[in-house]
Amino acid sequence: MEEGKAAGLRRGRLPGGLTLRAMTPNAITTAALCSGLTGIRFAVTAASGTDPVQVAEDWRKAVAAVIIAGLLDGIDGRIARLLKAQSRFGAELDSLADNVSFGVAPALILFLWSLQEAPRVGWFAALAVAIACALRLARFNARIDIEDQPHKSAGFLTGVPAPVGAGLAFLPLYLWIATDDPLFRSPLLVGPWLVLIAFLMISNLATLGWSAMRPRRSVRLELIALVGLVIAALLTEPWLTLSAICIVYLLLIPVGVFRYAKVKRQRAASVRGEPLPPA
Predict the structure, then answer these.
(1) Could you tell me which of 122, 243, 129 has the C-alpha nearest to residue 181?
(2) 170 and 66 Cβ atoms separated by less than 8 Å
(3) Is the distance from CB of 169 to CB of 129 less than 8 angstroms?
(4) 9 lies in a domain?
(5) What is the pLDDT along the chain (279 residues), one digit of tens a residue?
(6) CATH code at 54?
(7) Number of domains within the chain
(8) Which residue numbers delimit the CDP-alcohol phosphatidyltransferase C-terminal domain (predicted)?
(9) Domain region containing 146
(10) Which residues, in sequence order, are CB contacts of 189 under 8 Å at separation 6+?
């Protein structure tokens, strides 16, 4: 029996039939979930702390934990496709983890950081983000087997993705950490900002996906250099760099809407048999 178990492990299979290959992306998803929950833990510690230096450090850790969850979420699906280990279980686990890490965690962190100063209205703003994330993920799961998805077939996304929405929701917190300006912590600023992000997450706006961003060959070397500079900036001035990334993403939303409108016109002209409009 021990020899059989050893042989199964050599073939990459755990006792009971679960392959190590299939377990790997699910383990990464679980790590992302744990990271998001740990962000909540740091926020609770910061909200009850008394040492200003330690409190500020705990807020940084809370945000960093959610960012790490986003990075893990960005690679688990790609690893699953690379290993050919996609499964319905993995898709459901990913949605549940995303709901906690990018809906519940940002809502609680921002409520404890700012919105509890106006608990009634602030709580509704925090709920808006958490509910919008859950609705977005439910919409995604409901459409996962539908072939006719105009945005997806053109390389666009529908609304702001959950990890990106969580990152955008933290923009006032990034600016507060970078500048220590109490203005960015005001519930009068944070509350409406969260409502706006919640709307963007569940909207039907066409937003740019990776497959829709196809740089010309003439600028690809410049883009590689830009990525290197951004990484260097993240290492030296992480909070200002994250703020700049959020602002650039927001500015790109109208670009996605415009580009998808052009794709719709081209599709309509093709269906009618008319000459395609100029690109």
Answers:
(1) 243
(2) yes
(3) yes
(4) no
(5) 334 433 443 444 444 555 677 788 899 999 999 999 999 999 999 999 889 999 999 999 999 999 999 999 989 888 888 888 787 888 889 999 999 999 999 999 999 999 999 988 999 999 999 999 999 999 888 877 666 566 776 678 888 999 999 999 999 999 999 999 999 999 999 999 999 999 999 998 888 876 656 666 666 777 888 889 999 999 999 999 999 999 999 999 998 888 888 877 776 666 666 555 555
(6) 1.20.120.1760
(7) 1
(8) 220-254
(9) 18-272
(10) 172, 183
The rounded distance, in Å, linking the Cα atoms of 210 and 20 is 29
Token pair belonging to 70: 């986003």
Place of tokens 């755990």: 14
Measured in Å, how far apart are the chain's first and last C-alpha atoms? 65
Q: Is residue 6 part of a domain?
A: no
What single letter denotes the amino acid at residue 210? W
What does residue 207 show for φ and ψ, rounded to 5 degrees? Answer: -115, 155
Q: State the burial class of residue 36 (Cβ atoms within 10 Å of its Cβ: 0-12, 13-18, 19+).
A: buried
3-state helix, strand, coil in the chain (%, to 5): 80, 5, 20
pTM comes to 0.85
